[in-house]
Design brief:
It is built from 9 helices and 6 strands. The chain starts with a helix and ends with a strand. The strands form 2 sheets. A 3-stranded antiparallel sheet has the order 1-4-5. A 3-stranded mixed sheet has the order 2-6-3. The chain is rod-shaped. It is mainly alpha-helical.
Amino acid sequence: MGFWKNLKYVLSDECNGLLRLLVDHYNRRSEKNEKSIRDILVKVQQALDTQEVLDNNMSDSYQELKENKEAVEKVSEQCSAVFSQCETIVSQASQLETDSAARGQEIKALIGEEFEKQKEELKKSSQMLAARIRDVHTYLEEINAPDPDAPNVHELLARIDMLEKKNTEYENRLTAAQKELDETKQAYDTAEKSFQDEKRKVFHLSKKLAQANDKINDLLVRVKDRSLETMLQKDETENPFVITENKEKYTITAGNIQVMVTRFANMAVLDRFFESVPDYDPYKKMYFQYQRDIRSTARQFTPRSELEDVLQAFVRVVQEDLIVRMVEALYRRMRAGKAEYEAKLLEALNEYLEAIGFYCRDGLKVGEVCQEEDLKDMECAQDTHAEGREQGEILEIRLYPYYINYIDKYGKRKKLHTKGMMTVA
């Protein structure tokens, strides 16, 4: 509306200006400005027409504006209602904000109490965990603390090595024993087969043997009486079981232990004898056992070992494997009159023992009374059924005591001996 009003004023001013210009030209009319007056009149008329149009337009615009005012008032009333609702909503929002703040304080207080409670529980748990950790740490320290009673690891390792060596030695012995057992079994099977063959033969001769049994017993008694006993009653130098060569020799000293060990290990004379003897022969098995024991004993010592310890170990093996087992078996066989094979073996055995340094003690003879000093190196068995004999009389010497001379590290001359066995009345 203001726009149209201002436009009307502008047009009115322009018309007034044109009218004044027209009056001025009319008062000063002339031939020159008549055209100008007509042009001004045309312009005035145009301005008036324009003003009329404007007035009409202004009248329409006013009507439209009036209608718009009513619409605006309605809108304003609606806006007021909306504003009133907004104020109500804002008021409610403010109340909610106030309530939320109060509620937030309550929640904050509750959260704070719960937090303090959890904090206290965590503190107690941490204290308990710390105490438990200290207990575990103390326990670990006690476990890891060195045990004063614990054995020395190096000693245990050394003992383990020694036990492993012994275990290996036992395994070797077991293998050898198994081999010997297999050989014995094979020999037994062979002997069993031969025995069965002989049994069948003997079955047909049983009647004749039963009749000749008494004669055979008499013959055996005569053979016993005249075979070995006659031989033993001869001069001592001719006794095949007596060695006298080394009585005055002291070839074993503390400085030549290795030489002594080499002598014991040198069994060439016995190896040659058993070359042609079958493996199942009992004497050869005794010899194999002696070989194993001597070699095992030799591995136990070094050149720095004590002479007496080494020599005692070797003498013990000689006594157990050669003298007690082999020599006594030879004596029994030769006393029964079966002396050909045994006599040759005894010669080879005496040669080996003599090369080592052994000899037999003098002064022991069948038929003489034993003395107290004889009991130091002899085991004595009494025969209570011997009639017509003096008490203490030597009836039989199954084994002579074998001696060996040596010089200890202090230069003293000493002797070691095996045990002999005899029977007295």
